[in-house]
Fold this protein.
Amino acid sequence: MKKTPLYDRHVELGARMVEYAGWNMPVQYSGIKEEVHAVRNATGIFDVSHMGEIRVRGEGAGAFLDWLLTRKVTGKKPDVITYAILSAADGGTVDDLLVYTLGEEDYMLVVNAANKDKDVGHIKESLASYKKLYADRTADVEIIDESDLYGQIAVQGPGSLDCILEVAGELGLTGAEAEELAALKRFRSMTVPVAGEALKMIVSRTGYTGENGYEFYIPAGKTARYWDVFIKAGVVPCGLGSRDTLRLEAGMPLYGHEMSPEISALDGGMAFFVDLEHDFQGKVMEDKVTRKQIALVSDTKAIPREGYEVYVNGEKAGVVSSGTFSPVLEKGIAFAFVAPETPETGTVEVLVRKNLQPFTVVKPPFVKGK
Amino acid sequence: MDLKYSKTHEWVKVEGNVATIGLTDFAQNQLGEIVYAEAEPVGTAVELEGIIGTVESVKAASDLYAPISGEIVEANEAIEDEPETINSAPWETWFVKIEMADPSELDALLDKAAYDKFCEEEEA
């Protein structure tokens, strides 16, 4: 099992460790409810060093990524981060990812830990297909797995910016860098030199919680130093358990649940992140939509779980893809896949153990960030 | 009266022909904050290892299994309103009382020393 640069810190802090995507990761520290409330009301910190970083650079890299992904990455300001879907040729989903522009024809893809090796293989094969399809285009593109170079921490919650600015000096930020960070818009990034390291740190206003937050991609050997600064400042350490609960409350999809090789981005309710006006591998998905995603809130104490059956007017209509107890709403919440003709309002039922329980169909997010 | 324990983490307290059953401290700690709990209703005939209740944490649902066969003669409905007492007082918070059909089934359960050892191994 792989360990992140923060493994020893998690053990010292008494985290419960689990295996996740081949990594030994903290699932919880104080408890999922407490961690969720910390992120919703104050500031929490997550070790997300398991995420993969894949560098794609060289002449023609931007045009290649435009074809590889469901959204274009070219023609945007260099500090803009693009969330997009990596689709297979048949329209199924290989992964979802963030694209950071590091320079001209120089991009960093941030991918799910469990998919990283598969993604690298898929991107390399796709590059070969792209070169055949578009022999007239320049595609002098390198694909490099840089995951081992970075540790990653996410500082999330309504207090995150104030907290970062308070410890900016200890984080090695100059006055000007702190100002730049304070002015950073959502889905924008900046780079910061790190003393004694050739690799720069990347800071972005991104996250997976629905609250304001920042992510730090840190030269791996220095990750613990940054983590310690935040812990000393009283930021609450949070594990993968609260991370998954927070993302579902925020109405965000998770690979393997709302997307998979069998579930295209359009099946999975991500039409907003699919630009059908541009040519991309997997565009065939638009002709193959067989289901849609709905969001459900429990009308009772029942908690929906992945795999539970969904019924509309007494007929089986679909299945829950992610379900949890929401500590903020104090109710069960879920994403489910149902037939495309299912109404997007009203009430459905979910089979919870032996009983059909009523759920209201809502428009996500379940919980709005502050 | 000493408690007996099952490998599925129920504790059993025997008084006369009635077995009171709850979830062990080890199990509540593994589950984390319990946000939902329910006991099967009075009158339910249960087989050995049949379902007698359910607990859910934020992340997961799990069932309680009968360490003894018989009939449920009392069910603790208070756990539905206050599931968190399973975390705070696992040894006092019982789920069901079963009138035992075959008390010799108790012999298959673990004593405290054996259960503690079992938990240690499960955690490793």
